[in-house]
Amino acid sequence: MHKYLPRRCRNIKPFIAMEVLERAQFIERQGKKVLYMCVGEPDIPPHPAVTESLVQALREGKSSYTHSLGIIELREAISEYYLERYKVSISPEQIVVSSGTSPLMLLMFSLILEKGKKFILPNPSYACYPNYVNFLEGKIVDFKLKDKEQNYSEIEKLLDKGVSGLIINSPSNPTGEVLSKKELGYLANLPINIISDEIYHGLTYEGDEETILRYRDDAFVINGFSKAFSMTGFRLGYAIVPKRFVRVVRSLHQNFIICAPTFVQWAGITALKHYKEIIDEAKKIFDSRRRFLLDGLKKIGLGYWGNPKGAFYVLVDMKFLGKSSIDISLMLLERYNLAVTPGIDFGTNAEGYIRLSYATSLENLEKALDIFQRVKKSNNE
Questions:
Q1: Phi and psi, residue 76, nearest 5°
Q2: What is the per-residue pLDDT for 295?
Q3: What is the CATH number for 247?
Q4: Which of these ranges, 6-20, 140-154, 193-207, has the smallest mean pLDDT?
Q5: Same domain, yes or no: 57 and 175
Q6: Domain span at 106
Q7: DSSP 69-101
Q8: How many domains would you assign to the chain?
Q9: pLDDT of 204-258, one tens digit each?
Q10: How far apart, in Å, do the first and last CA atoms of the chain sit?
Q11: Are 87 and 168 part of one and the same domain?
């Protein structure tokens, strides 16, 4: 069947994290209890005011099409949020609201990447980034990040006339690392287009994250409500685009997506009204889990990538087992009922690692650490 598909479709690789999730759900249907640490989804419920505002919007009949860029009230609220939180001024006209960040990611890549042109992707990075480049028939330029060592200055060696852009993600999925002001400023000064994936903003536990818009006003920013606001199923995201791209973004969104659900957009406004309370509570919960997990891994003698200071991930070094990350993940799932994501999902540089999501209870983290202790002990025998 695949040979009849266009090349751009044949180039799309499976999202292994979701395949692990599906396998775990199958095992659970067999009557076994599975410990899920494979998917990046907060276990904190949405703020009650957010849920109520969504229901109220439906009661009030707010269910028709909206402006393709999103309701002006939400775009104004996002503009005010960036001004208050980051001290950057953005026109509501530069903001496009959509059904989550994924369709917006495809639109942003479409704006700056032509067929055959190059695009720089950090390795490791979010598993879906390569598929956006492949779908648009671009060429991936692999920028291998270094564990325990910042090497962003080496990115200049990859620049040439064929490079269309670079994507950055801070806090990072899968490593949890956060770019420093110096690093972000350096990257912002590179003479190429930059997409800044800021979906994990709000979840930084040592210091505050910065938006790239503090350093340049022509970057493409992706953000949304899934992570810090615990609104994954609401499917509400937004992009901030340079002014010269507003008209074409509107045309693309009108044709391919139409608009985000109206009642969900009103819930987004409520979330931003309560952002300090929501984010402070999420940070408090996730940071306690992060510290517990990192301390536990150290006691067991397991290393991890870099310095996880944000998001809710840790990339754990399992190379001592001498197996591929997929085999390790399957072993943990089949033998211990622990669902994790294999590092290879995030790039060849993460082979031998597994990604743990600590968006789960301290009790579950303790159970996971016990499993790793048993795995380590079994390997030493």
A1: -65, -40
A2: 98
A3: 3.40.640.10
A4: 6-20
A5: yes
A6: 48-275
A7: T--HHHHHHHHHHHHHHH-----GGGEEEESSS
A8: 2
A9: 999 888 999 999 999 999 999 999 999 999 999 999 999 999 999 999 999 999 9
A10: 47
A11: yes
**Is pLDDT at 1 greater than 60 in this prediction?**
no
Mean pLDDT of the chain: 94
Angle at 48 between CA 42 and CA 49, to 5 degrees: 120
**Same structural domain for residues 376 and 365?**
yes
> Hey, which residues does 36 pair with through a beta bridge?
339
Asked if residues 239 and 222 have their Cβ atoms less than 8 Å apart, the reply is yes
SS3 label, residue 342:
strand
154 pLDDT higher than 90:
no
Among 98, 115, 116, smallest CA distance to 107 is for 98
Asked if the peptide bond before residue 122 counts as cis, ω within 30 degrees of 0, the response is no
Q: Are residues 227 and 359 in the same domain?
A: no
Collapsing DSSP to helix, strand or coil, 260 comes out as coil
Domain stops at, among 246, 275, 304:
275
The last residue of a domain, from among 209, 242, 275: 275
Question: b vs e for 304-341, b when ≥16 Cβ sit within 10 Å of the residue's Cβ?
Answer: bbbebbbbbbbbbbbeeeeeebbebbeebbeebbbbbb
Of 171, 189, 184, residue with least CA distance to 314: 171
- DSSP string computed for 164-190: EEEEEESS-TTT-----HHHHHHHHTS
Does residue 100 share a domain with residue 180? Answer: yes
Same domain, 184 and 306: no
**pLDDT tens digit sequence for 299-322:** 999 999 999 999 999 999 999 999
> Three-state DSSP class for 355?
strand
